[in-house]
Amino acid sequence: MSESYENDGQAHEQYITEVLAQYPEKFAKRRKKHLAVAKAVEAAPEAPVGEEGPLLTECDVKSNIKSIPGVMTIRGCAYAGSKGVVWGPVKDMVHISHGPVGCGQYSWSQRRNYYVGTTGVDAFGTMQITSDFQEKDIVFGGDKKLDKVIDEIEQMFPLNGGISVQSECPIGLIGDDIEAVSRRKGKEIGKTIVPVRCEGFRGVSQSLGHHIANDAIRDWVLDKSAEADWEAGPYDVNIVGDYNIGGDAWASRRLLEEMGLRICGNWSGDATLAEMERAPKAKLNLIHCYRSMNYICRHMEEKYGIPWMEYNFFGPSQIAASLRKIAKHFGPEIEAKAEEVIAKYKPLVDGILEKYGPRLKGKKVMLYVGGLRPRHVMTAYEDLGMEIAGTGYEFAHNDDYQRTGHYAKPGTLIYDDVTGYELEKFVEKIRPDLVGSGIKEKYPVQKMGIPFRQMHSWDYSGPYHGYDGFAIFARDMDLAINNPVWDLFDAPWTDGGELLAAAE
Amino acid sequence: MPQSAEKILDHGPLFREPEYQEMFARKKACDGAASFDATALQGEYTKGWEYREKNFAREALVINPAKACQPLGAVFAAAGFEKTMSFVHGSQGCAAYFRSHLSRHFKEPCTAVSSSMTEDAAVFGGLNNMIDGLANCYSLYQPKMIAVSTTCMAEVIGDDLHGFIGNAKAKGSVPEDFDVPFAHTPSFVGSHIDGYDNSIRGILEHFWKDSPTVAGSSETINIVPGFDGFCVGNNRELARILGLMGVSYTFIGDAADQFDTPSDGEYRMYDGGTTIDELKAAKGAKATVALQHWNSRKTLDYAASVGQETASFHYPLGIRATDELLMKVSALSGKAIPEALRLERGRLVDAMADSQAYLHGKRYAIFGDPDFVQAMARFILETGGEPVHCLSTNGGKEWAEDMQKLFDGSPFGKDCKAHEHKDLWHLRSLLFTEPVDFVVGNSHGKYLERDTKTPLIRLTFPIFDRHHHHRFPVIGYQGGLRVLTTLLDKMFDKLDAETNISGETDISFDLTR
Fold first, then answer.
1. Which of A133, A152, A230 sits opposite B188 (nearest CB)?
2. CA distance, residue A468 to nearest chain B CA (Å)
3. CATH code of the domain in which B100 resides
4. Cβ contact (<8 Å) for B114 and A128?
5. What is the pTM of this model?
6. Among B293, B323, B343, where does a domain finish?
């Protein structure tokens, strides 16, 4: 649907040079490796087309490296990756923010992982449960406190399906043995208790927290899969790496069910522990957020022989391509149904494109998000006729930047672990029509008079996945860009910021 | 098909469509979680006295606390000074959290850098992170001052800020004479209000320690506002009041402009705030006045130690609390309280008299930082209401004693109780077992409103789900008028909602109230 376009790579190279000039020399050198302009690749006609379509550009930059101190990185920490992303959405478990009060307080209800349940009774997603460490816990260790916290959780929330212990920084520094406590208490209460070593100082970003959280699922949850009460069916799949932000996973699940698949488990938006335990009984793992959950897919492939497949439910081109790819795995019957699903939603898609396409065509977008969306949402914008001028990740790895080459057009500005300074300068120079990033970036960008949408939380909207979500996505981008407020910035008695001379 | 291009449904209505409801039912049937019956039974049980007793017997578990950690307060404090960058020494995720948290409340940019310490720094200490971090911060963001605070990681490993900063200066990270005040702000001690206090004290010590200026050499009064999510409205209101009185004053940190920059095409990373010159001169002030006592204890001790007179208040909201502030400022400055303020006072009293019938005897629960709860309880008593459950997660024993004195001083306080170090799960039990008419607090109270159906009035930090309230003052007589109107609006909306079914409940759907 999108037309081919190219960005002004030369100008973008120039912007990179300009921002680097502001750094002390040593750090200019280090930052240089994280900034690049996507270069066109000459695809040989016979070159095999990868899972994500042909390679368009090379977007390689250094990534997954420590942030430089003092630069205002936008990244978070391992705790954010584990409690905030992977574990937090498992709704029938109580997740203890183990340590001081802050981490749990700031992340409380902020990811918008929707779920169905009675909060505080059989679901605990939008609660802040903490061991609230005091000085004595640091000095004498917190294991005894954790023991008591678990007892009190059982008293307060007897219907919990299990407990996870999300470590904050001090836990690893004071030598607490949360594994021993978890094992002992788990036996005592007869429930799964998962210790997670996601202290914030581990690794360089949220990313290691995802990995540690995946390993904890492997070690403390999947070992119970043999006993799981689930009669396996031929079309059972797991949705992996969909956190149901604003209901994303539901908009996705609907499409998969419509094409005849059965969802065994949803990881981890709106998930229950039981759904996770039975995951190894599925026939295929469908992974949306590759960055945060590829580890467990690889493990299930190795241990249980379950294949996995990446898919993309942002925007109609990718949704259709993904539905076909998934259906192909299951054979003609499902393939035929997938075609029916695509056809059923075609009028909706046509209606959306007809309504919003003319209002959004040719608008330039800059993105800076986590580990998946900086590439995954590109085609959704392009479906609406919009163009991506720049994109970057907070915590991507090498393989993410390689995958980005299947999406990014030549000349696209690429920025890894961008600093507040760089992003501000890039936005100022490029002056895109829309920036999609996080809450910390939202207000500076809007002050410049540039429309903005939060692309972590969907700016309190969503879902953006699936066909139902695409309608909301298109509407949201339109309302951001075409709101009249952007024309009110200049006071009429000033001229380009300079006050006009007083009338004579 | 629920969605259409003509009428695009948001998540609320979208998920109430039958396609989704049926899907939820299919999922529930096999999700392995508690049954509907078990959930209903337990849900009822949590509403009773027995559950309340177990709930109050908790010793270790904290559920939905109404407090944050120290460095958040330090980042807020630093935002009150001219061109000052917050530097959070420790893990980088903390800085991201503080920035997000403050941005979500103020709907404004919030800056802070981190020294991004990782495993190696945990072993060897964060000295190199400090050296590189200060250098980068200085060259990229060109601040006039860098205010350093710490995360619990740096505190647990025992990093020495004083030594580290000296070392970084020796290595040329920032010029020798560049101001880098610091404060240790361990998150496992106290809360954000203590982090605020430590940070302000650290900044004052930095500028006053070796200064020859003598306290009392000027007529100026220092104002320490405390951690205040309504600083935008409140600081400007207080400045107006002090201007009317003709008092010479210096805010020790004023984040009003920093958290309220205009949209005119330019992003101002820094705006407003107390200047370094003002800070230096502030040592000569004759007095330092703290608007929030529990936020400022260490700062007041320090001000007293340099020879200044000190006074403190509990967030001067309502009639008598504002009276006391004005009279104290008048006594300290020798400036009379002008007629204009007496008229403002009279207008607020007039408004309270007009509406008294609707607020008399109303029962409230209040939660938040200790000074706010104290202020709000006092104002509610002035309206003839009863602040039945007053709860503060970061309020201590002394605070509870102060609260009891407040209750004892009013006939409307006889059934009221202060709950120190308690959380919002405790409050949930209180609301179920001893219901009230309204809850006053912050956005986190919306879960209490959902569960107990007690209407929530958002009047303190953090407010995430309503916009711009913080841009209006709640202190002083003008602020009192706003608080009064906010209480009344909620009360009248509730009254209308209870009487708006045509032919059923609308007998009392009065046009004039």
1. A133
2. 6
3. 3.40.50.1980
4. no
5. 0.98
6. B343
